[in-house]
Amino acid sequence: MKEITRINHIGIRVKDMNVARHFYEQLGFKFIAGPLGPEPVAIMEHPSGININFILNANADCHENVLMDVPDKHTGYTHVALEVSSYEAALSEITTLGIEITGQVEFEGARFFFIRDPDKNVIEFHQPAND
């Protein structure tokens, strides 16, 4: 479909808006608004233009990511990949923040590492291969 121009936002279901907000603020996102709407949503935006909507209705008793942490492989979005200009700088900053690195991969010159947010959502930091 040629009318699609970009991703408008990423929706992430979270248990606690304040916990999620603090985590994503560490990654440079700014709080815009919320909770809003019939299924409460809070909005954060990164200076790069990436917009996240927190869907504020996660089950407080859930302590795993059903797409990533159970043996059955359910369909659905498994992670978001954020492109970075410097793998080393991003890795250093995440480490300095005390956020656990859950995986690192190098593939055909591209390098990426993974973290989890407080609700177990997976975030990839991706530096493409140099052409």
Automatic annotation (TrEMBL):
The protein's matches in Gene3D superfamilies, at most eight in alphabetical order, are given as:
2,3-Dihydroxybiphenyl 1,2-Dioxygenase, domain 1
Q: Which GO terms describe its molecular function?
A: lactoylglutathione lyase activity; metal ion binding; methylmalonyl-CoA epimerase activity
* SUPFAM superfamilies to which the protein is assigned, alphabetical: Glyoxalase/Bleomycin resistance protein/Dihydroxybiphenyl dioxygenase
Q: Which residue numbers delimit the VOC domain? A: 6-128
Please list the GO biological process terms of this entry.
L-methylmalonyl-CoA metabolic process
Q: Which UniProt keywords apply?
A: Metal-binding
Protein's UniProt name: VOC family protein
Q: Which organism is it from?
A: Mangrovimicrobium sediminis
